[in-house]
Amino acid sequence: MTYQERKQQYKRIHGSGGMVAGKSAGDIAVTCVIWAILFIIAFICLVPLWHVFMASFSDPRQIAFGMGDSYKGGIVWWPVATSDGALDFGGYEYIFEDGSILRGYLNTILYVVCSVAIGMVINITGGYVISRKTKWKPFLTLYVMFTSMFNGGLIPTYAVVRGLGMTDTPLSVIIPGCTLSFFVIMLSNAFATVPESTVESAKLDGAGHLRIMWQIVLPQAMPLATVVILNSVILQWNSWMNASIYLSSSVSDLWPLQLIVRELSSRSENFLAAGSSAAWSLYLVRYTVIVASTLPMLIVFPFFQKKMESNVVVGAVKG
Amino acid sequence: MSNDTKAAAAAEAEGTAEAVQQPKTGQRKGDKHGWTKDFKLNWILYVIFIPCAVYFLIFNYIPMIGVLMAFQDVDSTNISLFGGDWIGWANFERLFTTSVGSNFWLAIRNTVVISLLNITIGFAVPILLAILVSEVRNKGFRRFIQTVTYMPYFVSAVVVCQIVKELVGDEGVITAICGWFGYTEGNLLAQADPPTFWLIYMFTDIWQNAGYSSIIFVAAIHAIDTSLYEAAAMDGATRWQRTWKITIPSILPTIVMMFTVKMGTMITAGFDKVVLLYNTGIFDVADTIYSYTYRLTTGQLGATADFGLAAASGLFQSVISVALLLSSNYLSRALTKTSLF
Question: A157, A233, B295, B326: which has the fewest C-beta neighbours closer than 10 Å?
Fold first, then answer.
């Protein structure tokens, strides 16, 4: 019997819909177990975020000790109302009156835009040159790749950044770490797959390297370039390490969002410990600051996900 | 401009020549013309490369030379790359003998333990997730699971650690659950007995990254020829057998590739979360080489800035990470015939 014949036979016996599916009771049980496990996983992924979101406008006194009338500890499934039945938006009021979070947002947006722009110029020019057939190609590749193998570590990098006079200025967050050798190599691999004939015909039409790079090669490599851009945006948006090393607390108005989050959270954490006289809404700040800093990212997330998922495989295959 | 045209013309001639000769002399193309000719032909390219070259020179290569600071008496108040007095291995001697809130040997131990957890359990979870996800035939549900598990990747490390602190704090949910099983009540991040912090860190990492890491495995499973499964089903293979005998062998190359990548970066990646999570009380179990260096660099978290020590521990970490990268590369070459370098 050929494969097709056996397939037909199988279809006759088992029905056409479920070639691999199978319909036995055991299979259904396995499916149920898989669905159950995945539901639990999804639950674990979502619940912490939900908890924080709900707690952010609950009654801080009940949340703090888990001993309220309507809240006895555990996950905050629904907002816990205060004794007079209202929700407490004091946490949000606090962070917006404080203003640092808005400044953090502006700083982060500025840093992300500048750093990704500079990074992409480096990635595209570097990637383009590496992708061309030159005698120096192996050396240039090694020059870039080697940086991912060995790095000087925090202190020598700090010394360089400081030596350039960048510490305590926005440049220290924008320029160091604006790209990774991996991104350059990824783009150069994408450029290398552009058909040589396209490039040649552009050359015949008198296009120079810059024009070929921007108008011929880059548009064709756009899917991967987008992945690189999105990855850089996420890296920069979420980064805090460089800022915490290079921007001292004397220039806290230059801090990016993530450092502000850290600062406001620790202020909120000290609230109970120090027995401070601040209003209870300060306790809620630990939640509201998370909501305020994370919600925008999660709103654009579906777009990022779509772009990145469709290309992560391409990148992996080519890279 | 004229040079540009000349180069373009030359390139064009080169291209035609190549097109004609490639089948025969593809191998010997390199020595057909010399370095001078290559430079005349491609000098514009080398000019275009300057931004990239300068960036990596300043922020990667000069700091590499800067590792020599580990052998110098570095002034912690007025740091400069060159100019300290040479003091040999004194910084390293101090590194292994003094204690800065915790001791360096413990930091090494913690780094090793956390890395091992990360590369075993932390590596297996995304693969299991991918296999489970691809067993789901309902497209909507599959999409839902992928989206939801992918989402934490977009939450920043600062926020993730803040949420973890909340969940394992005095009144936290996880603390309460551990309480049911008879574990100590109270803030889990204050427990200085070994496995607690390591497990918290591991789960934090998995929570944040498992969905993202599983994408590549889902794609690999998706690429498997479905007729394999059909044939196996016809021959009476159970679902378990199909997974074990078809899915896993088929994605093995991807698994090996990702494993070697992960192994190469395991000592450098993600340790900023340690800095965000821990506190002075649990340095003995939580400090890693990375966080140790961070504390000595910034003078935060119970340390005073000591650049000599920080340079030494930074160099220590770099050397280990190079060793890991080279061995993972060797492993990759041996197992899959492909390698990064």
Answer: B326
